[in-house]
C-alpha cells in the first residue's frame, strides 16, 4: 500500500477492525518513511461474468435498476429496492465465490423479490427462468398461492399477537390450610 503523503511503496498495519456490517475491514496504517498515519477500507471484490464472457465488477446499482423495471407500477419504494440489493449482495458474498455468473445473480434476486412483491417476482422470474408458455406462469402462480396459504394458516395457528395460542388450563383453587 503506497503512502498517500510521500508515495513510499510500503506501510505497516497498526490496527484492523471490521465494519459494522462485516462487509469491509478498516485498517489504520503507518508509513515507515514519513511516519504519518492513514486509514484504508478494504473489501473483497466480486466479479460478474456476463453471458458474452466479459467480466465486470459487481454493482448493487445494477440490481436495483433491473428490479426497478419489474416493480414498475407496484407499491415498492427505493428503500425497499436498496434493502433487496443489500440482501442479494450478502447472499452472494456468503457463497464464498469471488466470481459469479450473471445468471446466478438473477436467481439470487428471486427469493427476496418474491417476499417483496409477488407480481414483480413473476415479471422478473419470467425472464430469468425463461418462461415459454402460459403453463410456466400458471405453475409459478400455483406455487405462490400454496406458499401464501401455508403462511396464512401458520399465522392463524400462532394467534393475533404472533405467539402460540395458550392452552386452556384452569387452575384449581389452593386448599385452605
Automatic annotation (TrEMBL):
Co-factor note (free text): Binds 1 zinc ion.
Assigned protein family: Belongs to the NrdR family.
A GO term, aspect molecular function: zinc ion binding
Biased composition annotated in UniProt, kind: Basic and acidic residues: 148-159, 167-177
A GO BP annotation: negative regulation of DNA-templated transcription
Residues covered by the ATP-cone domain: 46-136
Keyword Ribonucleoprotein recorded: no
Role: Negatively regulates transcription of bacterial ribonucleotide reductase nrd genes and operons by binding to NrdR-boxes.
Cofactor: Zn(2+)
The protein, known as: Transcriptional repressor NrdR
PANTHER family: TRANSCRIPTIONAL REPRESSOR NRDR
Amino acid at each position: 500500500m503506497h503512502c498517500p503523503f510521500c508515495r513510499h511503496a510500503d506501510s505497516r498495519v497498526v490496527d484492523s477492525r471490521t465494519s459494522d456490517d462485516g462487509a469491509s475491514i478498516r485498517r489504520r496504517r503507518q508509513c515507515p518513511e514519513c511516519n504519518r498515519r492513514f486509514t484504508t477500507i478494504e473489501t473483497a471484490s466480486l466479479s460478474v461474468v456476463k453471458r458474452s464472457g466479459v467480466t465486470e465488477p459487481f454493482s448493487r446499482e445494477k440490481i436495483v435498476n433491473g428490479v426497478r423495471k419489474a416493480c414498475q407500477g407496484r407499491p415498492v419504494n427505493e428503500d425497499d429496492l436498496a434493502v433487496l440489493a443489500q440482501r442479494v449482495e450478502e447472499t452472494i458474498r456468503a457463497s464464498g465465490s469471488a466470481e459469479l455468473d450473471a445468471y446466478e445473480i438473477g436467481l439470487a434476486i428471486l427469493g427476496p423479490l418474491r417476499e417483496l412483491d409477488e407480481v414483480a417476482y413473476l415479471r422478473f422470474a419470467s425472464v430469468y427462468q425463461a418462461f415459454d408458455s402460459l403453463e410456466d406462469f400458471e405453475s409459478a402462480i400455483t406455487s405462490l398461492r400454496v406458499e401464501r396459504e401455508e403462511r396464512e394458516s401458520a399465522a392463524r395457528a400462532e394467534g393475533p399477537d404472533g405467539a402460540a395460542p395458550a392452552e386452556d388450563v384452569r387452575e384449581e383453587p389452593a386448599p385452605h390450610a
